[in-house]
Amino acid sequence: MLAGSLFTSFGFWLLLGLALLISEFFVPGLIALFFGVGALIVGLLTWLGFIDGLVVQLLIFSGISLVALLGLRRHCMDWFSSGSKQDDAADLDDSGLLGARVRVASDFANGVGAVQLNGAKWDAESDEPLKIGDAAWVVDHRGIVLTVSGQKPANKGQKDKGA
């Protein structure tokens, strides 16, 4: 009886909702947020006397949480990222890699090899048959893998960094 009244009381749902909202700060991902909102709504509806009974509370909690999660998560992710997708192309240039001059550190076999940039060895890809000691320029990168070309790019943001 006591356990049943504890789980059907509005206090439980409000505390659960607050705990879930707080947990979103420690494990971000915009999932706990929606379950926390669902728990807070159930707590409020229980306190106002609109719903009673554990089964109804669980159904409403599940419904609100899942609808919010599936319907609003993408919108909220876009809102929280606030334009980072537009900044991705700018970040590529801001990394200082595009147009950098590199020295080929190993022969390219099947389009894959290594280059030397600022004293560090980088994995690289190229459609050209580059050989050890050749000069090349960074034309793109995917994470830490550089795409290089034996021809100097015509970009205005070229850099002749130490190869």
Secondary structure: number of strands: 5
Percentage beta strand: 15-25%
**Count of distinct structural domains:** 2
Separation, N- and C-terminal Cα atoms: 76 Å
Strand order of the largest sheet: 1-2-3-5-4
Domain NfeD-like C-terminal: 96-148
InterPro entries: Membrane_assoc_protease, NA-bd_OB-fold, NfeD-like_C
Transmembrane segments: 6-23, 30-48, 54-72
Organism: Halopseudomonas xinjiangensis
Q: How would you summarize what this structure contains?
A:
The protein has 163 residues and is of the alpha+beta class.
Main features:
alpha+beta, about 50% helix, single chain, about 160 residues, 2 domains, rod-shaped, OB fold (Dihydrolipoamide Acetyltransferase, E2P), 5 strands
